[in-house]
Amino acid sequence: MNVLEVAGLNVSVRDTTLVSDVDLTVGPGERVGLIGESGSGKSLTALSILGLLPEDVVPSGSVRLSGVDHDLIGADERALSRIRGRDLAMVFQEPMTALNPTMRIGDQIAETMLIHHTHPTRSAARAAAADLLDRVQLPADLLRAYPHQLSGGQRQRVVLAIALSNDPALLICDEPTTALDVTVQALVLDLIVQGVVARSSALLFITHDLAVVATVCERVLVMYGGRVVESGPVHEVFTNPRHRYTQGLLAASNLEAAGSRLTTIPGTVPAAGHFPSGCVFRNRCAHATDLCATTPAWSGTSTTGYACHHPAGAPHA
Amino acid sequence: MRRLNPSLVAGGVIVGVIVATALLSFVWTPYDATFVDPSVRLATPSWAHWFGTDKFGRDVLSQIMVGSRTTLFVGVVAVGVAAVIGVPLGVLAAMTPRWPSELIMRTNDLLLAFPALLLAIMFGAVFGASTLTAMVAIGIASVPSFARVIRSGALQVMRTEYVLAARAAGRKPFPIALRHVLPNVTSLVTVQASVSFAIAVLAEAALSFLGYGTPPPTPSWGRMLQESQEFLFSAPRLAVFPGIAIALAVLGFNLLGDGLRDRFDPKLEDRR
Questions:
Q1: Residue B271: pLDDT band by 50, 70, 90 thresholds?
Q2: Whether domain B71-271 has CATH 1.10.3720.10
Q3: What is the pTM of this model?
Q4: Which class is A4-217 in CATH?
Q5: Where does the record place the ABC transporter domain (chain A) (predicted)?
Q6: Count of A–B CB contacts within 8 Å?
Q7: What is the mean pLDDT of residues A113-129?
Q8: Contact call for B170 and A102, based on CB within 8 A
Q9: DSSP assignment of A187-248, as one string?
Q10: What percent of chain A has pLDDT over 90?
């Protein structure tokens, strides 16, 4: 039984489709990466899992979470708020704004546990908050501090502590280290992995950083233009990319080709709603032919495969 | 240590003096403010009567001191009424979906278009002229500006990641409003309260001048102005003293509001 099963997810605003036909599964304790450029639909996918899309952005399809007997898409706010923060938790990108500036750190950590009654009394929640701070390697006297007294890395660790406070079945991280210094990044990534492993929680990790995916995740999905274009085990996808976009992405981040010009993918990501019909990547792809005007079918299994008419490399083993 | 801005200091001092005067008037005034002494009618300023006396021989300084009580009382209640109604409305308008929110804001615009004084006079005509009706009417007339300012602030807070994070943690809308939105718009409430206070002081004076405000014999700066009308040429000081008091109070609260806004808005401070 998978922890998360997303099937045929579409997200649209008025008549523009932003995410189409996303299938995504996360097994118990599995760490899955969702990778793609800005505007590829990664964050929208995460927000639709939580039911936190803005008012006029509408999802369709199915999102099932193990232990919850209804579909999360179309569920009412009351049902969703019981799940959020207990079975499903999220770490956001911007640690500077993810904490309420007028509340003490300790109260903010305790709040999540009090909402879901995992620690019934205020004093029990306080004690648990101190313990959580310790697990993210922060001193307990920060409980009485306000967010502005903390650095970005410290705040992100507090946000992580809040997200992990109810031992969620699934933790979603949306670019959690993008706003941090490289030195702090490694520590926060380490704490995220430690946190989910200790609780045997599953992790859905959204990023545009290939190196981060390689260190954190076991399996990866590559998104482009609101579609999943390739997926598979991290090692396989990174060493033997099949989709031409994945190939371009890996070539662009190859730092060993020193001295030569930076390899880039030609063109830029089109604005939402302006992706070509058929294969979404064909207007930037050197291998595109007339065949690419039709949407490529998914080749492979549900967890390992690609959607490309002219795949690169050798077939997956 | 941050540099104190001049308008905050000036406003604070003026408001402080007015509050101190009002407090002092409870325990001491030179004369009983309502005591009529026919022997000293329309006396010019002297050591015995610093600001002179009016047509009934009442001491003007004592009346101004006691009148500051009326002014502050009216301001506090009017601003209180406006804030208690306007702040929740503003937060509600920011948090509800499009339709209810539009309804609240358009009703608000309707009230905004209605002149405050007219509303107060209408209230006075219906419920009888008293300090209470004046305060409530001024308060209701100040609701729209509160709702508008708080809504824009709350909309900004609603877009922050900590509200999104609170929702992602399973917080329901009402606790989010109470614990996350309200504390983060308090600076806006303070600034708006200070500005509305100045408007309330002026409105109370205008209403009392027109005879719809504080009824005699309770001293009020607005009614002192009205009573001074017939002596405008023979004893202009009777209009000048309460006039200065009103102007100072309005100036003080406006400066305080400006100063507080500058202090709470770091972007504005950097520009100077």
A1: very low
A2: yes
A3: 0.78
A4: alpha beta
A5: 4-250
A6: 70
A7: 86
A8: no
A9: HHHHHHHHHHHHHT-EEEEEES-HHHHHHH-SEEEEEETTEEEEEEEHHHHHHS--SHHHHH
A10: 16
